[in-house]
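Supplementary Methods S3. Input chains for the assembly prediction are listed below.
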Amino acid sequence: MDITQISVFLENRPNRLQQVLKVLAEADVNIRTLTIAEVKDFGILRMIVNRPEAAHAALKANHITCSRTEVLAVALDDASGTLQRLIEAVSGQRQINIDYMYGFPDWHGGRSIMIFRFEDPAAAKQALAEEGYTPMSRADLHGE
Amino acid sequence: MFSPDRESMPLPRLKELQLERLRWSVRHAFENNAHYRKTFEAAGFHPDQLRSLADLQRIPFLTKQEMRDNSPYGLFAVPMRDVVRVHSSSGTTGHATVVGYTRSDIDLWATLMARTIASAGGSADDILQVAYGYGLFTGGLGAHYGGEKIGATVIPISGGNTDRQLMLLRDFGTTMLACTPSYAINLADFASRNLPDFDFRKTRLRRGIFGAEPWTEAMRREIETRMGIDAFDIYGLSEVIGPGVSCECSAKRGLHVFEDLFLVEIIDPDTGEVLPEGALGEIVYTSLTKECCPVIRYRSRDITRLYREGCSCGRTLVKMDKVCGRSDDMLIIRGVNVFPSQIEPHYQVVVDRRGAMDDIEVMVEVGEAIFSDELKVMTALSEQIAARMRSTLGITAKVTLVEPSTIERSAGKARRVVDKRKPS
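Predicted C-alpha cells for the full assembly:
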C-alpha cells in the first residue's frame, strides 16, 4: 500500500516553518518524520504524518500551499548494506530513477524506514516485490 | 528654433491653423478608414459638424485597445503602396500596435525631431550620437532622421556596447547625445568604474536629449553634473508618431507641445470629461497632418497637465509637465512598455532602479495549481516564467516564487505593482 506524504511550499524566510507546524499542532497531527529540500528562495517541506487527510485539510484551510504525494515506505534492517542492496536492485539493475528519498528509525522494531519517491512508482513497486521487499502499509507505519 | 514661424506663432493665428488642419484630419480619417467611420457614425458624428475647435469634443476617443484590435493595418488611412515605413510600439509582441508612415509622415517626424534638437540648443554644427535602439522602436530612427534634417552629423551607433559608445564619444568629438536617461547614467557609471582616464569634461559633449522613459529632476542633476552637460527631456509615443511630440527648451521648465501638428486635451480619465487648462489629467492627442495613421482623440493614458505661460525661449506653444503617472497599470521599464495584467498567475511586480538600470522582480504566488513537491519542477517553473517574460516582453526579470497571500492586498485587491523608482 502506498503511503501519503504531505508536501508544503515554503518561502525561505523566518517563521514560515513555524506557521505550518502550528497549524498541524492545532489539528492534532503528529509528524513522524520530515525533510526539507531547498533552493535559494524557497523550499519544499515533505512530511510523513499520522493523519495525512486531517493535515492536508488543516493546511488548506489556512491557505498554505500543499499537496499529497504517494510514496513508498520500506522497512530495512538497521545494518550495514541493507539500503545499498535495495538501491542496487531497483536503480542499478532496473534503471528506475529515484526522485527523492529520506529515512527515519522505526522506534518499535529496531529497523530503519526509508521513504522513496520513484520516477516510475509502478515499476518500482513491481521491482521491490520481485526482490522480496514488502512496502509498508499505512497501518504498519502509523500503528493504526 | 527650427520652425520659428510655427513655434512662436501668435495664439489666435495658431488656433485658426489648428481648426483648418483639424477639419482636414478628421475628414481624412472618416473618409479613408473604416474603423473611424464606424465609431464616428456610432457616436452620431459627421465631419461636417466640425465648425470650431470645441466641436472636437463630439468625437469619440480612440483607445489603445482599439489600436491593438485593429493591428496591424486596420487604422491606416492610405493605400499600402503609399506607406514607406512601419514601426511598432514597444510592449508585447502579441499586443504590439503597428504604426505606418507615408513619405510625408516621415518628413513631418524628422521636422519634429529637428525642432526638438534645436530646442535643446543643437544645430547643424553638432555631432549627434544616437544611442537609442534602431529598429521597430521609434527612438533610434526618429532621432536619426531629425539629426539629418537639421544638418547635424549623425553617429548611428544604436543602443548598447557601452565601452564603444564612450570611445566614439571621445574620439569622434560627439557634442550631443540622444538616449534614454537611464542609459546616460549607465554610460557615466561605466566610465567611472572601468575607465579611470575618461573625463566627460575633456570631451566635446555639451548637451543631450533624453526620453522614452520617465525620469526625475534628481536624474537630470546627476546626468548634468557627471557629464558636464545640459540635459533635456523629450517626449513622444509611437502611437502618435514617435519621439518629438513635445520637448523641453532652454528654460527646462515644462515641455512645449508642437501643437501646430498635434492638438492636445486633458481629460478626467474616469469620466472622459475635458478639463480646464492647468488641471491634472490624461493627455489626449489628435494629429493634424498625419496621413497614414491619423490619430483622432487618442487616449494616451499618460497623466500630466497643460498650461500656457510666456516662455523665455520665445515659443508660444502650450507646455506640458513631465508625465507623472499612468491611468492604467502600464510600466515603462528600460524603454519597454509593460502591462502587469499580462503576467499570470497571481503576481506582484517590483521595479527598482539599481545603479542606472531599471531592475524588475516578479513575485509569483505558488498556489496548488502550480505547486509540485519536486524541486526540479519548481525551479523549471521559475525559469520558464523568466524565459516567457524575456520572449514576450523583451525584459529580463528576476522571478521569485512566494507563498500565497504574501502579496500585499488592499481592500482584497492585489497590489500588482510596486514602483520604487519614483519620485526622487
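Chain A has one domain: 1-132. The first helix of chain A runs from residue 16 to 26.
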